[in-house]
Amino acid sequence: MNAPVSIDTDTRKFAPTPEDLTITVRDERFNRGTTPRRWWAGEPFGTAWHNALSATFPRGEAFFIESVKAFREGADPKLESEIRAFVKQEINHTREHIAFNRLAEDHGYDIKAIDQRVAEMLQLLKGRPEILNLAATMALEHYTAMMAAEFLANEAHFADADAEVRDMWRWHAAEEIEHKGVAFDTWNHATRDWSAWKRWKVRSLMMLLVTGRFFRNRWQDSMNLLAQDGIVGWKARWGLFRYLTVSPGVVRRILPEWLAYFKPGFHPWDHDDRKLIEVYEGDFPDALMPAE
Fold it and tell me: Molecular function (GO) terms listed (predicted)?
């Protein structure tokens, strides 16, 4: 069942997170049956990109949870409630992407190498200051929120995709928008004694580092999956590049929001896009049912 998490309205020093924000834990389940091998409109490039993304989510979202939880002590009641809701949503996302990843493997895609690389990368982070893990989480949460908004705003991304897979990505997108400020507000709480300059410098440098690694690794992962479909060389490179930058062009479309992250005083809720969540919930009214 889906449980709205109540958040009180204590004010905070930094964030313009809407005071009336309610983070709803939608306990939805998808992809327990079968899907086409090329579920993205019968086309390999969108399929490969999203399969590569999904393969990173189980370990990646566990990392996000631990990074945010590490700094919940002393948080005001509103942020504390948001962190609890964030954790519950991310746990559900992990469960559903594990199910989706199994379907990809059932179709013969070897995605274990992607999972293993994520595991090795996270192992290297052990012993690193936890505040840097939070900065990385904050940057990656901005990526998920940017892509989520684009996926819900622009029907072209999933218009011809397998219906159940499309529903999963839209569900995930709605919740990513909803909790897009949690890691950022946790960062502001954790760095409340830092100067504004230091806070901006660290988060901006981390975004640049995360961006390089994100696109390098997801490109490589997508190329490997395309090769498993027999698509290699210039055909694979051009097809994926066209998918990302031309049509539907998610990378090109999120560029303005990516640049906004570097603005002094930036906050994810500078742009209130909760209307996009209503788009999802309008199609799935059961998502609003309270837990029994």
Answer: hydrolase activity
